[in-house]
Prior knowledge:
Dimethylsulfoxide Reductase, domain 2, binds molybdenum atom, 28% helix, Barwin-like endoglucanases
Amino acid sequence: MGKTQIVYTACSHDCGGRCVLKVHVEQGRIVRIETDSGDEPQLRACLRGRAYRQRVYSPDRLQYPMKRVGARGEGRFEKISWDEALDTVAHELLRVKETHGNTSILFISAGGSQSAIHVGIAIERVLASFGGYTQTWGSPSFEGALFASMATYGTMTTGSAREDLLNSRLIIIWGWNPAVTIWDTNTSLILAKAKEKGIKIVSIDPRLTESTAVFANEWIPIRPGTDAAMLIAMAYVMIRDGLQDQKVLNAYTVGFDKFQSYVMGEEDSIPKTPAWAEEITGVSASTIERLAVGYATTKPAALIPGWGPARGLMGEQFSRAAIAVIAMTGNIGIKGGYAGGFMRAFHSREMIMPRGVHNTVEQGTPPRKDSLYKLRGAGKPSSTRIHRAKLYDAILQGKDGGYPCDPKLAYIVTSNLLNSHPNTNKGIAAFQNLEFIVIHEQRMTPTARFADILLPVNTFIEREDMVPPWLGSPYYLYQNQAIDPMYQSKSDRDICAELAPRLGITDYREGKTDEEWLRLITGRTGDIPDFDRFKKDGVIKLHFTEPFVAFKQQVEDPADNPFPTLSGKIELYCEHLAEMNNPRIPPIPKYLPTPEGYDDPLRQKYPLQLLSTHYLTAIHSTLEKLPWLEEVKPRRVWLSTYDAEKRGIADGDEVLIFNDRGKVLVRAKVTERILPGVVDLPQGAWFDIDENGIDRGGCANVLTPSEHSPGGAWGVNTVLVEVKKA
Length: 726
Ligand SMILES: Nc1nc2c(c(=O)[nH]1)N[C@H]1C(S)=C(S)[C@@H](COP(=O)(O)OP(=O)(O)OC[C@H]3O[C@@H](n4cnc5c(=O)[nH]c(N)nc54)[C@H](O)[C@@H]3O)O[C@H]1N2
Ligand SMILES: Nc1nc2c(c(=O)[nH]1)N[C@H]1C(S)=C(S)[C@@H](COP(=O)(O)OP(=O)(O)OC[C@H]3O[C@@H](n4cnc5c(=O)[nH]c(N)nc54)[C@H](O)[C@@H]3O)O[C@H]1N2
Ligand SMILES: [Mo]
């Protein structure tokens, strides 16, 4: 034991937390992982971070470069040298560029790694220097919320510090489950303190979530995709009873009159009463009345609109309607209030994540009349870009289908693409259409099996880096290297440094070592005075006398601090949306029926609404097949007792979930904790499609539509299915 070394690092996968990991190393091997026991607030890792040892040593780690020898997707590979692998990748890139042009190179990276230097952008830089590529837009996470945030507030910095929730008198969590999804490491701690303080917490969710069970005083179940109707009916109650904060609306917003005219039915002869909303949402009119009055009269109050309800084919209407109701209660820019929107509260992410070739939302760019791109696809203003949900259609149809290019080569990094993107079966077909696929991966994922060249990457435990919090809390984490890279694996950066010269790109590293880059980035933040100290401590926590409150300046001193929108005000009516001239995305928030929603005629055939939530033991698919985690909580489809009885299904039975896109076989969790008519298959399980086309892995995306909302939100929470006993 005397020889144990303790190395400070932090997880940098796409989990809602970012926590301190203390890795115990003996003779070059990890023997144990502990977490923060230092200063408050401690950044304590959950079961997933602590189980990470099993991922580093998992038997499916990729050990050496490989080339495909079987059919695509079959998973038969042969070991090759790094030289042969990189020569082949370079050769294919040059060939495709020569024959089809740079736009036929598709670059795809997702959330796998979110550190400062070892990220997907490392590869993107090589491809940019190589003459360009086709990029994707449309974040799976937040595009609906981001779109609403940009359209209404003109910024993504709309969140207040978590500590400020302790100044609230009422907290409404709407489609938000941070007990599982974390949403920055100490959110649950703050909610627990709020509960201890006696602050009332209401949860609106089709599921009785862990957060609801632990923190909430009241659960209001609602039909997926109908939340905008409930919010709009709350606005109706407030206007009818004169409860809206008219002073705030007059001073800080534009377009309330138009919204009011829609809400009261002057525009379309349909008053959006609680009774109207009850029909749509399944929430009783009296509950809607009570919540509307409670929220309007309990000040300050924080309504937190999650990203889950916005991850649907009309997703942005929920996020926009939430902001409208929040504005009506005057809870913007004040202590204990909450503005909704994207909900960034601190700049750590912008400070150390590379800006690279592009990044989400250019902050600080003044609003422009022609900046519609800032709404749709945010910081990706390229003429050659494809929405991530439409990738497979783009590969299958190319320019003939109206897409900006004919994709021929896919360069995939930090993503289990076929697993995480909607409509896996279509994806598999599309992948057969590509001339060449190169993938950088750590494990033999279902997507990795489709590579022509597969390159092994090391994990954050095996390299040096640093990482910001997931959303926007005031701290930074340093990632010390704990062990040598496993087998022949390399970092994405090292791969790029060796690939770049083969493409005629000299000086990829710009003459700097990784450590020099890390020092430079640290210095640039202005938040970390001493790099060596930061590296030694593994963490820097910033302390403020007052918790950050979004839009405090705009509200306290509006003359000098306009909102960063065209009008300088909160745009309940958004001119950019009016320019889009699309009835499916009107300039004021409206409730619009959702494709594959509760009232879609397709319900005759597929009567159940499928959600695919983020799971306790998972980071998407990154932690699949780790025995410790599987033991804690195996994956199941949630099915209500009512729906189960109707179908003769008992708890633990194998069931088939299906629609026109695919079939999935999993075990059922029969529970009172989900609204009848709704099922939940947590996202992320590795697909494993058998010879009959049935996925035995339990991957939700076998069932989801490859479509997006008019604003760009993914449609993975608006999906119709049927379930039967297998
Ligand atoms: N443990 C864990 N944590 C994670 C992740 C993970 O994979 N695992 N992933 C991280 C990432 S990248 C992201 S983007 C976030 C995602 O964070 P979220 O988007 O907040 O997570 P979800 O679980 O998809 O959805 C949250 C809640 O919304 C509810 N919901 C879904 N549709 C509707 C609806 O129409 N109306 C209402 N009212 N509620 C609805 C779901 O039942 C769920 O309880 O989580 C992060 N945190
Ligand atoms: N049905 C449904 N689908 C969803 C969602 C949903 O709610 N429902 N949520 C969506 C959301 S919010 C997100 S963010 C996406 C996530 O989509 P993805 O980012 O594709 O998710 P993962 O499955 O975690 O895949 C990440 C991969 O990166 C690899 N990786 C990790 N570190 C590194 C590294 O340093 N280098 C390289 N080259 N690879 C690395 C991991 O091994 C893993 O296979 O999924 C989306 N998909
Ligand atoms: Mo995400």
